[in-house]
Amino acid sequence: MDILRFATAGSVDDGKSTLIGRLLYDTKTVFEDQIDAVTRVSKERGDEHVNLALLTDGLRAEREQGITIDVAYRYFATPRRKFIIADTPGHIQYTRNMVTGASTADLALVLVDARKGIVEQSRRHAFLASLLQVPHLVLCVNKMDLVDYSEEVFEAIKAEFTTFASKLRIPDLTILPVSALAGDNVVTRSANMPWYEGPSLLHHLENVHVASDRNLIDVRFPVQYVIRPQSDAWHDYRGYAGQVAGGTLKKGDEVMVLPSGFTSKILAVETADGEVDEAYPPMSVTVRLEDDIDVSRGDMICRPQNRPMVAQDLNAMICWMDESAQLKVGGKYAIKHTTRSARTIVKELSYRLDVNTLHRDEDAKALGLNDIGRVRLRTTVPLMCDDYSRNRSTGGFILIDEATNRTVAAGMITEAS
Q1: pLDDT value of residue 85
Q2: What is the DSSP letter of 224?
Q3: Kind and range of the H or E element at 84?
Q4: Domain-wise residue ranges, the chain
């Protein structure tokens, strides 16, 4: 059974947490004691309905303020598919949390309030989903019960968003009318909107095709750990463990190890359950090679005729996540890319991007909290990387403040040299 990872996004009070609560409740993946607790808290707060948002908003501050602050991960399954949901905050000051939640998502689910239509945060989150190369985007026009299930309201919002989305790189866009509070079109089709002929949200999530989104052409296997047991029985065993970031690995395949450039053939591909015929993203496996060559953590196994770029100069889009300091030219950071760690210096800040207007401010001298901009970096050692548009695993990285060990930025490589 395959897994769909999806992130919810949208403005404050658009109903993201309620929608996830409704999905969990209607698919019967919530325990009775959780429902009892949520019902009790809802009564104590004087809510008219059972507040399903409380199923995801677990922090006390979130419950007190009625907002989502941190990324909350929830898991549920249907007979067709398993799901991992990242419920991300809607507030503008939590843009970095939305970036974190969407960075690993196969699908982004953006909610808008049918009464308010497309607002600044709706555009911001749709842009971030396209920047992070999330392949599928679903726009849920929520709270349709508060506009009398009006087809005219839905069509107006659909037209406006479709026009905006045409400026972005969104390969697959779906727009649905729903009511998270009443359950319309969430798990089952709604009788209140006979004019809508599309699927329910759950039906779409169960059937959206994600297998082809993964890069199965470029073999990329960043080595995370060298397995070399010390016992006599395993004297000759040497395996290289990691997660497949691209392509497929099979016994007998000719491979190259970077940065050394040595070549060998795959002797075996193993998992915790034993040897497998082939490995593909995002499987975690151990690869054994026919030859004893020097391979260590941070190296990359690829194909001799299909190698990633080996580069120290990177152009990248950066989302700055640190509230206590700014990114400036000359700043020095630790960089973590796949399983490789290095140090880097900011050589140039090309521009800061206005997420709402997509305007480029080329006079910007720094990036502050939640700012997004294009930078040029120089690393101390070469990185084996691809453009983020080609491979999200080998094209993404994080920057770390060496003094505090805090993650200060997430980056997406646009080109390397």
Answers
A1: 87
A2: -
A3: strand 82-87
A4: 3-213, 221-302, 309-416
Task: Report CA torsion sign: 386, 387, 390, 393.
Answer: positive
CA distances to 299, 341, 383 from 240, in Å = 10, 18, 19
Q: What is the pLDDT of residue 212?
A: 74
Which tokens is 13 given? 């009070």
Whether the domain at 221-302 and the domain at 309-416 fall into the same CATH topology: yes
Q: How many CB atoms lie within 10 A of CB 141?
A: 26
Tell me the C-alpha distance between 53 and 56, whole Å: 6
In order, the DSSP letters of 128-172 are HHHHTT-SEEEEEEE-GGGGTT-HHHHHHHHHHHHHHHTTS--SE
pLDDT band at 397 (very low <50, low <70, confident <90, very high): very high
% helix / strand / coil in the chain, to the nearest 5? 25, 35, 40
Question: Is the predicted pLDDT of residue 343 greater than 80, yes or no?
Answer: yes
Domain topology for 3-213: Rossmann fold (3.40.50)
Tens digit of each residue's pLDDT (9 = 90 or more) over 147-190 = 999 999 999 999 999 998 998 888 899 999 999 888 899 988 98
Distance from C-alpha of 239 to C-alpha of 329, rounded to nearest angstrom: 41
Of 50-59, 269-278, 399-408, the one with minimum mean pLDDT is 50-59
Determine the pLDDT at residue 127: 87
Beta bridge partners of 179: 184
Phi, psi of 391 (to 5 degrees): -150, 115
- What's the one-letter identity of residue 30? V
The pLDDT score that the predictor gives to residue 393 is 92
Q: Domain spanning 221-302 has what CATH number? A: 2.40.30.10
Residue range 309-416, CATH number: 2.40.30.10
Alpha helices in 244-361 (DSSP H): none
Which one-letter amino acid corresponds to residue 60? R
Q: Quick one: pLDDT band at residue 355, thresholds 50, 70, 90?
A: confident
**Residue 55 carries which DSSP code?**
G
Burial annotation 249-280 (CB, 10 A radius, 16+ → b, else e): bebebebbbbeeeeebebebbbeeeeebeebb
